[in-house]
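Q: Here's a chain of 184 amino acids. Please give me its 3D structure as tokens.
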Amino acid sequence: MTLDPAQKKGQVPVRFRIASPFAVATFLLMTVALASPERGEEKIAFADAPAAVQATIRRLTSETIAEVEKSTDDGTAVYEAKYGKDATACSVKLAASGEVMETEQTIDASKLPEAVRAAITKKFPKGEVGRVESVTTQVYEVLVNVDGKKQEIKVLASGQVKGGDEDEHDEGCADEDGEEEEGD
């Protein structure tokens, strides 16, 4: 690095002195933001989870619970329990009400469906498959009638709406009375 002629030997250039406090402040703000309870995960004892969460976990598995984490997702408390032979083989995410939001299970890569293996090979021809998890997310498909128009929406157990295609629904699906509806 060349020194500015007006700068004395051993001094840090001005642009670095100005940037340095800014960089430190940015780093500190990012650290605080990432560590905030709104985004962070907190390990808790199984006994400290809500009773409904405990009951659902007991219903799902008789294995020892390796850990329970509490986090917040869009302002909603979410509990994740990890269990299985190697403590990470399975996990379940639950709402405080005990409703299952998502399950994950580690599987052997050889058990991936052929279409999945082909997609991975196409996207990453030189890639090597590592850990594989089968993830199941609880989604509610709801047909809503608004001003005579049918709209189908998909809502995650967390309350997040995932779609809304007007007048699109499966032909021949039974309505809430068990009667078949006609397609549009």
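Q: Can you summarize the key feature?
A: The CA atoms of residues 94 and 120 lie 30 Å apart.
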